[in-house]
Amino acid sequence: MIDSDFGKFVAGDFYTITVGAPSSFGPHQLFTNATRTFGGEATISENDGTLENFSQGLPFPERPSLEDPLAGNKLAWNMRYAYQGDNGDIPEMHWRLIDWRSEKVEFEMRFKAKLMRFMYRHIRDPKPFLMNNVEDAYGAFRLEAIDAGSYDGTQALVFANRDESKPLNGWVYIPQLGRTQTLASFSSEESMFGSDVTAKDFLSYTGKLTDLSWDYKGRTFMLLPMYNHAEATTSKLKSKKYDYWHTDFTGRASCFPKVSWQLRETLILQGNTKDPEAAVTKRILFLDKQTHLPLMWKLYNKNNVLWKFAINAYSHPDHHIDSNNGTGAPILTAFSSIDIQTNRCTTIQTLVRVNVDEVDMDDFDVGDMRSATGRDYRRR
């Protein structure tokens, strides 16, 4: 019920898992209805980069089979299009870079972010697609450094391509240079802002699906960090604007989310890199079967040696801030990346608001990244 490598943290008394009662994290009824209506119609294109005959719901709802050579690819697509709402506002995202040995916080940063689906929408009009989608993207993510030392004012705008075989599409605004550069000029293998998090493993696997060959490794039951935030012992960090106390961290160097874990049906997905020069050669992801979200994954280096753990903690939306109640979207509250080779970790606390009015297409305009009001994402 615990990954054997992760179990070494428990055996070494670096972390104690608190087990909570299992609960249903069923998606919004409209997503469920769409899956029932359209599920089973989607097919994977010949180049593995797009889905054909897909508009809404979960692309491949059938139980994966070890006998199916495409089971890994299908799971990867399910992970990509898992239901997390049609948009999200993250007004607060707190980062801590920590030394595992000394247990000292080396650096703290604060960001904010917004994200939006342009395609495969279920709740907010227009559904299922936005018409003015010139980037042919299924969604976009925008991140801005608010209080991050020399990174202050840095912004990143990433368009998630509908066609996964296309090069990464997006821009980074660097205030010190007063200019915007394409994402192509940055390596997705490098760490983000001096942390232990690579761009491809930021809050989930965000790299191109076609960068990896995917294998389904079977089904099991595992303890995963899914919980009710309203019932958790939270940190002393309170939101400046909302009635919300951020998730706490605990264990060695406070590198582990301080949440209860549930026994969940789990699907094991392995991704092997196709690029022999990639820093990460293999990822093993543990997907919660009900949500198809990765709750934990392991990264291996070029020598096929375990390098990092990534952990996502999700709260049930009905036990979070009031505006998330009834959305059916699991709410990401805490993320940690633990580098067992350099003995460091990075923790991230997030306040996520799902399906809100304060996010629209104009927030993802590259021309806005230079604006003097960029800190408020244009007029807000």
Explain this structure.
- The chain has 380 residues and is mainly β.
- The protein has a single domain (7-370), classed as outer membrane lipoprotein receptor (LolB), chain A.
- Helices cover 7% and strands 36% of the residues.
- The chain contains 3 helices and 19 strands.
- The protein has helices spanning 7-11, 29-38, 71-80, and strands at residues 18-19, 43-44, 51-52, 87-99, 105-117, 137-147, 155-161, 169-174, 179-182, 212-224, 226-227, 249-250, 256-257, 260-273, 282-288, 294-300, 306-315, 331-339, 344-354.
- The strands form 3 sheets. It has a 15-stranded mixed beta sheet that branches. A two-stranded antiparallel sheet has the order 2-3.
- Strand 14 (260-273) and strand 15 (282-288) form a beta hairpin.
- It is globular.
- Residues 372-380 have low confidence and may be disordered.
Name a few traits of the molecule:
15-stranded mixed beta sheet; outer membrane lipoprotein receptor (LolB), chain A; two-stranded antiparallel sheet; 3 helices; mainly beta; globular; 380 residues
Task: Summarize the SSE layout with pairings.
Elements (H helix, E strand, L loop, with lengths): L6 H5 L6 E2 L9 H10 L4 E2 L6 E2 L18 H10 L6 E13 L5 E13 L19 E11 L7 E7 L7 E6 L4 E4 L29 E13 L1 E2 L21 E2 L5 E2 L2 E14 L8 E7 L5 E7 L5 E10 L15 E9 L4 E11 L26
Parallel strand pairs: 1-14, 11-17
Antiparallel strand pairs: 2-3, 4-5, 4-19, 5-6, 6-7, 7-8, 8-9, 10-14, 12-13, 14-15, 15-16, 16-17, 17-18, 18-19
